[in-house]
Design brief:
two-stranded antiparallel sheet; 20% helix; alpha+beta; single chain; six-stranded mixed β-sheet; 8 strands; binds zinc ion; 177 residues
Length: 177
């Protein structure tokens, strides 16, 4: 979604639109395979300007199909991210740069239009957990047979890796020998 610079006025205007996710999914696929968005992002943004500084405040929401980091099962994940962005000209007209307050994200723009797409992609990616889990209680996969422990108990005997136990086992074997 692009907004013409001339359409951004001192008086706030609001825009609600759907952002396609094809390019976003390509980016995600090249980084990892944990997420894929299954519907366009829903963007709600209020924009205005002060001289050449542009302000974008709002929220971006999306629904992704995620793969659990423990059991590898797919599950739907709804994410949303509120944003407050300030865009200043890449070449300041006055030569002095005013720094934005700490709670604002400041970026630069060039040309006669603002492309919201990369900004919204960046924001929604901030909302994605580093490691997706289908649930906090996910029991993951059995390290021996690979079956999903959430759906049932497999027949595997869990080998303990505690060194104290293996020391005991060795002791027992020595005694029997
Ligand atoms: Zn899981
Ligand atoms: Zn097993």
């Amino acid at each position: 979604m692009k907004i013409q610079l001339n359409d951004i006025l001192a008086v706030e205007d609001t825009l609600d639109y759907a952002e396609p996710v094809e390019a976003l999914n390509e980016t995600l696929a090249s980084a990892n395979h944990d997420y894929e968005f299954v519907a366009p992002l829903q963007v709600h943004v209020t924009y205005s300007r002060s001289q050449m500084d542009l302000f974008f405040d709002g929220e971006v929401r999306g629904r992704a199909q995620a793969s659990c980091g423990r059991c590898l099962e797919g599950f739907p994940l709804d994410v949303s991210q509120a944003f407050s962005l300030v865009l200043t000209p890449a070449t300041p007209l006055t030569g002095e740069i005013e720094l934005a307050p700490g709670d604002l994200t400041q970026s630069f723009y060039e040309g006669t239009e603002i492309d919201l797409t990369p900004l919204m992609y960046e924001q929604i990616m901030l909302a994605l957990p580093t490691r997706p889990l289908c649930g906090e209680e996910c029991r993951g996969l059995c390290p021996q047979c690979g079956s999903n422990r959430n759906t049932g108990q497999c027949a595997c005997v869990v080998e303990t890796s505690d060194p104290r136990w293996s020391a005991l086992r060795n002791l027992k074997i020595d005694r029997d020998a």
